[in-house]
């Protein structure tokens, strides 16, 4: 069972690697759309990456309005 | 015509396989330009089939297989036309794209959609017309039409119903949620999930395997197991056109076209 902090850390690492930004520049409470500079299609990419990595299903309506990494991690944690 | 290079799609025949590539920026939206070239392809298929045992559809664009109908074109046309004229235009478009997809669906060769990335709405419906869907693990599927006050209009529901259980169809349609390739394989939509960027290679390997069989037998098997749900397809066009005439649809199209939201496919 992953802890919430470990989940959060993995999300930050994965997002940084996929969108080629420095891991150190990403913080848990940051708006990930702005931090990663991603558009709607790239948001889908991120969603798929996260689902594949954590082996969960994340219905997109559950993520509607979620903009920071910490809340995203909580949503994933709830499905692990 | 053995080879064609258009603005939205291209095709060529290589070692008994017709490869149809989509390449209209930004993400292969299906509008009047694509439809015209698809009709050209459907007309050429009679000749191409003589030298081929398989057809592979894939996208040359990084964003994905196809983002679906060109909603911007649909919105712009609905703005510049009288209501009745726009409704007739939509019906004509649907009739024409159904003809193309029915032709691909019933082709007496094995058809494979090799998909990656966004495979939404009309793009999903294009894949569903094929016999097999091979997806890379970053592929994502969705029927977002309900957000616009519409149902899928390119044959999606009848073809999903043909392939899947009704409860799964309801989930995909009524929630409008997107789902990944692994889920698509679990529910029986996708036959193979492969690594990122490997869908076309896997489709070519599958086509080569199919080429070893007697093609008359393959065609007979396909005709037996894959009936075209013509009555339901006709019904779908009627329902779509009825829904399209409501003001809520124009409002939904306007909202989508003007949206800067990160998830514009959600209501």
Report the strand count of chain A: 0
CATH structural fold name of chain A: Non-ribosomal Peptide Synthetase Peptidyl Carrier Protein, Chain A
- Total helical segments of chain A: 5
The class by helix and strand makeup of chain B works out as: alpha/beta
Q: Give a count of the beta strands of chain B, DSSP E runs of length 2 or more.
A: 11
Total domains of chain A, how many? 1
The arrangement of helices and strands of chain B along the chain is EEEHEEHHEEHEEHHEHEHHHH
Strand-pairing-aware structural class of chain A? mainly alpha
CATH topology of chain B: 2-enoyl-CoA Hydratase, Chain A, domain 1
CATH level-four homologous superfamily name of chain B: 2-enoyl-CoA Hydratase, Chain A, domain 1
Uncertain segments of chain A are: none
**What's the CATH class label of chain A?**
Mainly Alpha
CATH architecture of chain A: Orthogonal Bundle
Helix content of chain B: 40-55%
Q: Helicity level of chain A, as a percent range?
A: 55-70%
Largest interface: A-B, 19 and 24 residues
Structure overview:
- The complex is a heterodimer of chains A (80) and B (267).
- With 80 residues, chain A is an all-alpha fold.
- Chain A has one domain (4-77): Non-ribosomal Peptide Synthetase Peptidyl Carrier Protein, Chain A.
- In chain A, 60% of the residues lie in helices and 0% in strands.
- Chain B is of the alpha/beta class and 267 residues long.
- Chain B has a single domain, classed as 2-enoyl-CoA Hydratase, Chain A, domain 1, CATH 3.90.226.10.
- Helix content of chain B is 49%, strand content 17%.
- Chain B has helices at residues 32-48, 71-80, 83-105, 122-128, 156-163, 166-175, 181-186, 199-210, 215-225, 230-244, 247-258; strands at residues 3-5, 9-14, 17-22, 54-59, 64-66, 110-115, 118-120, 132-136, 140-142, 179-180, 192-194.
- In chain B, the strands form two sheets. In chain B, strands 1-2-3-4-6-8-11 form a seven-stranded mixed beta sheet, with helices on both faces. In chain B, strands 5-7-9-10 form a four-stranded mixed beta sheet.
- In chain B, helix 1 runs parallel beside helix 3, helix 2 packs antiparallel against helix 3 (83-105) and helix 3 (83-105) packs antiparallel against helix 10.
- The A-B interface holds A 33, 38-41, 43-45, 47-49, 51-52, 57, 59-61, 63-64 and B 27, 63-64, 67, 117-118, 137-140, 175-180, 182-183, 261-266.
